[in-house]
Amino acid sequence: MLRTHTCGELRVNNTSLEVTLCGWVQRSREMGGLTFIDLRDRYGITQLVFNMEKNPALCAEAGKLGREYVIKAKGKVAERSNKNPKMPTGDIEINVEELTVLNTSKVPPFTIEDNTDGGEELRMKYRYLDLRRQTNKKNLELRHKLSIETRNYLNSQDFIDIETPYLIKSTPEGARDFVVPSRMNPGQFYALPQSPQTFKQLLMVAGFDRYFQIVRCFRDEDLRADRQPEFTQIDCEMSFVTQEDILNTFEGLAKHLFKSVLNMEMADFPRMAYDEAMRLYGCDKPDLRFGMTFTGITLLMKGKGFKVADDAEFIAGIKVDGCAEYSRKQLDELTDYVKRPQVGASGMMYIRYAADGSMKSSVDKFYSADDLAAILKQFGAVPGDLVLILAGAEEKTQKALSELRLELGRRLGLMKTGEFKPLWVTDFPLLEWDEETKRFYAKHHPFTSPKPEDIPLLDTDPAKVRANAYDLVINGTEIGGGSIRIHNKDLQRRMFEVLGFTEEDAVNQFGFLMNAFEYGAPPHGGIAFGFDRWSTIFGGGESIRDFIAFPKNNSGRDVMIDSPSAIKEEQFKELSIKLNL
RNA sequence: GGACUGGUAGUUCAGUUGGUUAGAAUGCCGCCCUGUCACGGCGGAGGUCGCGAGUUCGAGCCUCGUCCAGUCCGCCA
User: Fold this and answer.
1) A29 neighbors A11 (Cβ within 8 angstroms)
2) CA A342 – C1' B52 distance (Å)?
3) Of A85, A152, A242, A493, which shows the fewest CB atoms inside 10 Å?
């Protein structure tokens, strides 16, 4: 090693030790006769001192060092006369006797500091410089810790890590596939896996009754702050289990991660059926850090001559504690918020229940004091509260009210970082009707098992069938989800029928799985967690990009290596591909 | 596919109603400074106002188009 110590470990009890440090020049401060240099490596920052009286040549040399030069410095640890309590190494410094420039550096395009002056775009282009910053380093360290602790826990529970292929077969269901041409099989393509779903089920058939993998998955869909075209899952599957066994096992994983990574003891996670989540929060991944659950008042508001209410399929609202004094301006802002096209409400009603007991609403014209009092009672409102009400088509209104609830949560500071409210959402619908294609789609995936008691509904009312499917939600983010799978080939065949697959389609796409199910498939089920999201939530971050070493931007581009990019004509030829742009 | 926001010095941003030579901070360069640690002081360099049209006597500012970035909707079994 070129160094004897790191830049983060020396303390006052190392005084007068002869050490050699290596690192990057964070910053230098010249005082004329004295020069200080902050030397940085992965572990911290240590101050180097050069003294003009003791060694003028060396001091002059130190003065020439630029930001981000890579240097090696040999010298003695000394206790500082002027200590810096803000730094872990602030009690000591190194009186440098030998200095070697290991490499020079151009002036970096932004400052390598916690509060950098560089914008997102620039930092992504120079990601290797951005990663030198402490905040990014911390994020990747947290991610590493989560990864190690996940392995530790699952290993302790007899899960085994098995790799599955990346070059697999395209299927039209679900997300768009990334596709890879096969040179040796002209005109044919591999697909990159959206998840190792079918392979882990085949591993169950193979008898590996507890499997896991921390694995890259690929989906060619439009991106968001919490979505990347390639992302990482903690992918798990178990045999001979019920839903209850899976929830318990992976609640165990979550608790272990909370404890080992964040040092937090978590109580048992609450559970909520999908229908309940939709009724109370209008959303299948509610943020439980605050209340403000929905109160339905469709019947109370209808029949009073107010057309908006009379025409509405669904009317519900939320009670905002202690906000009766909201100004007209604030209420108008909220109205504008719900009327944004992305939220989609056509208006908002309010009732202010003033501290003196008086009521003021936006619909006084249509509702008597008794009517309003009845509504307030339904909400359990007390003087000082504000009630906000949306009306319209059920699904749309639920969604808008859910957005309004979250907006108020943000405005009132109720979504605190550092507070964690996990939740299992269970009993998802098995199928989703698509108006455009006039057919059902699997809400989770086509191998999800219906609840046994709901199987008869497959023939009569498929939309009502509930699945043995579950999601883990933390603070309003879906962190993972899974299901008990179908292991019976007849039920699987029936499922494909409901989804409108012909026998031929099913065999063509999933024949290998159906064949496998002919040879003794055990009852099994599993779950997959979004590893990037989990890291982001634990790290209190906003965007999963901050927890991925080399992420892509929202157009799926890597601006550092400039990909995707064109390929050479010879490559197309070799692949028997012609462009059609 | 759609909505919104932004693009001005190396960087982060300001720039009034369209009007003389486009500013600040920071970074960078030079000089001074022996206890700094966001050091301090003095001085200096640094601009295709994303790109292309248009309106105008005159455009960083107005209009249209386009590219790029970000947030969201659709999409993501």
Assistant:
1) no
2) 32
3) A85
A78 close to A15: Cβ distance less than 8 angstroms? yes
Phi, psi of A194 (to 5 degrees): -75, -25
Element (H, E) at A434: strand A431-434
Shortest-distance nucleotide from A227 CA to C1': B76
What 3-state DSSP class applies to A134?
helix
CA of A78 to C1' of B45 (A): 40
pTM of the model: 0.93
**A520-547 confidence digits (pLDDT tens):** 999 999 999 999 999 999 998 888 999 9
Tokens 């007991």 belong to which residue?
A357
- Can you give the C-alpha Rg of chain A in angstroms? 30
From the list A333, A319, A312, the residue with the least C-alpha distance to A280 is A319
pLDDT in tens, A249-267: 999 999 999 999 999 999 9
Q: B30 C1' – A177 CA distance, angstroms? A: 58
Beta-strand pair A469-474/A477-484: antiparallel
Torsion angle defined by CA atoms of residues A191, A478, A226 and A449, in that order, rounded to the nearest 10 degrees: 10
Cβ contact A384:A324 at 8 Å = yes
Q: In the structure, how far is the CA atom of residue A125 from the C1' atom of nucleotide B28, in angstroms?
A: 21
Report d(CA A420, CA A303) in Å as an integer.
43
The bases of strand B with some atom under 7 A from any protein CB are 1-3, 10-13, 25-29, 32-40, 68-77
